[in-house]
What does this fold into?
Amino acid sequence: MGLEDEYLLARDHVARIDFSYLTPTDPTAFPPAWPKALPPLTYLLPPHETTYPLPLPPHLESPQAAPTFETVIRYLGALLSAFDLSGDALMLRRAQELGDWLLPSMGTRSGLALKTYRMGMNPNGGPTGPSILAEVGSLTLEFTRLSQLTGDPVYFDAVSDA
It folds into this structure.
């Protein structure tokens, strides 16, 4: 569409997303599954900055839980679509990183994802409550595509039980 400048702005944003912002400070929390999966981001920093990630403004606080369905369709789906349209490896690496963060949300007895999920937490197989077909279908679509693109069956395996 000729929107290369806009894409590069969005790409810089995607490169700077810090999924750990959503993780609680909790001794039972899981560490990120792929902490070294991304290249150094120092090339994106202003000349006077030497560390990443940049500190968040003090008024921002981590939410208690993120809506799993919304996170999958808006973030994971967007990253996978961006990769499919551009072939940009950054988009696939970030999609895989987010997928790794979300995998424990499906660690329930039924295999259905928790409605809301505290990133990095183990749901300990608890009940999920009622699920909407669109939620199950969307998670299946996005995680199956992530398995296809990465060649790692773990994402498909996580949604196939549901």
Confidence is low (pLDDT under 50) at residues 27-45, 56-61. The longest strand covers residues 66-67. The longest helix spans residues 68-86.
